[in-house]
Amino acid sequence: MSHDAPTLDEAVRRLLQEAWHLSGEDGHAAAQLDRLYGRLQEPLHIAVVGPRRSGKSTVVNGLIGDQVAPLPLGDGHDVVTWYTDGAQPHVIAWTADGAARELATTRTTRGLRLDPRTTRSSGITDLKVAWPARSLRHLTLVDTPGADPADDGHRAASEPAVAEADAILYASPEIRATDLHLLHNAQHGAVATATPVNTVIVLTHADQVGGGRIDALLTARQLARRHQRDPAVTATCSGVVAYGGLVALAGRTLSDADFTAVAAIAAAPRDAQDACLMSADRFAGEDCPLPVDADVRRRLLHRFGIHGVRLATTLARTGCATRTELAAELVRRSGLAELREVVTGCFVERRTVLKARTALAGLDRLADRMPGQDGVHLRARIEQLLATAHDFRELRLLAAMRSGQVAFTAEAGAEAQRLLGGNGTDAAVRLGADHELSGGELWDLTADALRRWQQHAEDPRLGLPERRAAAAVVRSCEGMLVGLGR
């Protein structure tokens, strides 16, 4: 591997410059190229999409670490909302004619709220929310209006944001055939076909599985793992993660008053607890015999959900003796850590290749409108880059392994996935090694992996797809050796 070979980012920038020269005096094309080039400088754009009431806002809130979504307008409808990092919270509204203005907001116990008098019938199409959050330093979250597959109006409102997103989090309480069909249809165009779209399905409402039993989150995790072994699911996404949004947010924002109320419920006689926690209606009812006011119980129910109240009460009764302990255990059980790990491993650590993919998709659309041989030439250059860039080859191979098109033994398959960056692109993660190892130790481990996969690539007992896949793993190992140096 040559030290002088351009990186993927450099190759894409060169192709944008080439397209600029081909566009000539076309002002519209020049504006599109300016926007594509600008996107390369911006944080990763992750669109959060899904049906209405699918829990998209709990995904946004969990990743941000605060209750800021949703932001309905004065007439009650939602618009595309962009969450970015900012020193101070503020909201900018955009209208269809490109005008922008800052909106007054109020912070409530239910999150950030807009003044309905300033947004009703205002023609607002997009909101941009600046919020001080460490998690937003490397990404922008795009919360899209919830829609049913047949709802063309809402789909039209969110399609541009989804089409131009670098990655997608698809939120849904369950994986249905309509969800898979929608995700499959999103993978159209030469770039999407050559570089499988990076989508992660988030099983929201995981705390409601089985009627919200105490083991609901555990059951939801098992369900997510089963989905990840389903070829119909793995063909459309990079992973499936179960997430209890209310439990996660309850843990992140647990107050002393909340803990006091939960502890009082946990100290009540078990028969009273069991009777009142059978349903949300019983728990919130005026005749509930628990030693906590009805208003406090309804507040807990709104913030925790009935499963969250059951879980928090059980945890408080069986060992979480302080607010800090209870908050930490709620967050741990919610699946928030797994969700963040998936977003980091699948998206943030691959932001260079994902942003390059977005730029190439934009160039592909531009090539369709270029006259004569200019469009043909640009499309050929795009296809050449897609075919030769190893970053894209890794994505294609990971997708092929997930869908069963390439099949190694369980041990070899797990190692191949790691070395290809399926668990993260850091060298130590690819090698399954301790982050404390020195560069020399990582180099030795990489060299061992390289020799092992060179043998796989030449093994006549393996099928042709597996030998080709092994050769790609060899290429990844060679890239790591160059990066580690010696």
UniProtKB/TrEMBL annotation:
It comes from the Bacteria. InterPro entries: P-loop_NTPase. Gene3D superfamilies: P-loop containing nucleotide triphosphate hydrolases. SUPFAM superfamilies: P-loop containing nucleoside triphosphate hydrolases. This is Dynamin family protein. It comes from Catellatospora citrea.
